[in-house]
């Protein structure tokens, strides 16, 4: 694997992130939607030594809560541990930001993603019926508790 570094999302990343979104998701975020997240929450980008964007994770924050919006790795960089590195780095940043928990939805049939999140300590806490479209499918709600609820 090439040398990967995780950096905060920046304006220069937006075209590549929008391209990854289009390749990975049925309802992709546009470049403008990504731009609106600049400087908010925890949006992290994986790039190689040539500053080629390999993937990203987006996490919106509300008070001490984290909501992962997207995790995406370019098809050219899959199966290299980049998703794991993104989730690991996000978890470290969420702890530094003193978030109480981070949560996400994942397609019920997405076994590789569920395995990734489970290995990172996320636990299934619920199910959202018919959450996804094309095809219609349930979402598994998974949460990582970072500190005890008070």
Automatic annotation (TrEMBL):
Pfam families: Acetyltransf_1 (PF00583)
Enzyme Commission code(s) on record: 2.3.1.266
InterPro entries reported in the protein's UniProt record: AcTrfase_RimI/Ard1, Acyl_CoA_acyltransferase, GNAT_dom, YpeA/RimI_acetyltransf
UniProtKB keywords: Acyltransferase, Cytoplasm, Transferase
Catalytic reactions on record: N-terminal L-alanyl-[ribosomal protein bS18] + acetyl-CoA = N-terminal N(alpha)-acetyl-L-alanyl-[ribosomal protein bS18] + CoA + H(+)
Superkingdom field: Bacteria
Ranges for domain N-acetyltransferase: 4-147
Entry-linked NCBIfam families: rimI
UniProt name for this protein: [Ribosomal protein bS18]-alanine N-acetyltransferase
Organism: Butyricicoccus pullicaecorum 1.2
